[in-house]
Design brief:
The chain is mainly beta. It has one helix at 2-14, and strands at 32-34, 37-39, 44-47, 50-57, 60-68, 92-94, 101-103, 106-108, 113-120, 123-131, 154-155, 158-159. It contains 1 helix and 12 strands. A 3-stranded antiparallel beta sheet has the order 3-4-5, with no helix packed on it. Strand 9 and strand 10 (123-131) form a beta hairpin.
Length: 160
């Protein structure tokens, strides 16, 4: 009676029926996104005067920031919409009106910061990573100086 079960177990293992060693984790093979374009693992791009290399972390594809770089080699639309499906974690973009928020009745302008795509339980979001002075705008690209919104749109911390 034991022999048929042993043979069945051996056959299942031999064919991968139990899944041992047959599952690949595609998170670690996926390309990184930058402005909706896929870039292969190990590739490097330049944006805002910084170099970024496509790699992986525990959450999947991630842009790792390196040293300085020359002119941008990728489009930089700014942090003007939800980064999910457009950027991978670690990507940075200059802020836009999309990133405006309120503290009490005071408007905090998004154009004053650089934002980094960070993973959350529901995807990605832009999080302030520092002053926009960290970003080198390419020749011919005009940096927005102020938000098109006004403080009058803030009420008790809510942007109306």
């Amino acid at each position: 009676m034991i022999k048929p079960l042993t043979l069945l177990a051996a056959a299942a293992l031999a064919t991968g029926g139990l899944g041992f060693g047959t599952v690949s984790d595609t998170r670690f093979e996926a390309a990184c996104l930058w402005a909706g374009e896929a870039h292969a693992q190990g590739s490097q791009v330049a944006a805002g005067g910084m170099a970024f290399t496509c790699g992986n972390d525990a959450a999947g594809p991630h842009w790792f920031r390196g040293g300085g770089a020359g002119a941008s080699t990728v489009p930089n639309p700014g942090a003007n919409s939800n980064p999910s499906g457009l950027f991978s974690a670690g990507a940075r973009q200059p802020g836009t009106d999309y990133d405006d928020y309120c503290v009490g009745d005071q408007l905090i302008s998004g154009v004053e910061d650089v934002f980094e795509a960070v993973p959350t339980s529901g995807g990605l979001l832009w999080k302030s990573a520092g002053s926009v002075s960290q970003w080198t705008f390419d020749p011919g690209v005009v940096q927005p100086k102020t938000s098109t919104r006004s403080t009058g749109l803030c009420h008790d911390g809510q942007l109306l």
